[in-house]
Model the fold of this input.
Amino acid sequence: MQPSALDRARELWAALTRVPGVFPGRGEVRVAVSPGSGLCPPGWAGVVVLDGGVLCTVPSPELEGTMLAHLRAGTDLAQVPAQEVLGPATLAYLDTTDFLPAHEAAGGTEVSGLPPGHADVLALLASVPEHEAQESGLDEVESTVYVVRDGPEVVAAAGYRTWLETAAHVCVLTAPGRRGRGLARAVASAAVADALAKGLLPQWRARFAPSRRVAGALGFREYGTQISLRLGR
Done:
């Protein structure tokens, strides 16, 4: 029997800790010391919650007890004293049977493909504020970049980068002034279809409601959250 999207996500994040162990079950908490953890930037504490199970990595043993105490107490991690916080962001996944493809963009606009790093995709990234470009992750995609054009200009794009040859981390960006027209859904749908055809697990990480709505329209299910904290020692 094919593992569910949730089971595959648990296996993915457990592997990203880069230390032996499994993802905790619902109501359970696990904190691991892992300076090389993929749950967060180097030197940070990373926390992933999936279906009520909590997995955390810390860069040094000195922080292990602190994070365990916060997690067991149910502390709002966004309020934990930290030098810097990334997130929280929702984590959503889908199985092939969940997928609700968008067959075309608004007005029948065609979706086409470009290689990653194409100049027209870079121009789209340059047209938005830096924080939006970084949030999209579009500059890091490894897959074909699926785009919608208005004349020669790329106004929406999506692709993915592969995590541990298991997940396809979907990245999407729409030009300001072109949002709310179904373009993000159209290009993301093409990227998700590509990932599923390759046997990958589509992953959607989002902090903002519009992005979460696009994911929901494609059939993604929100299973948990991710947050990273740069803690003082």
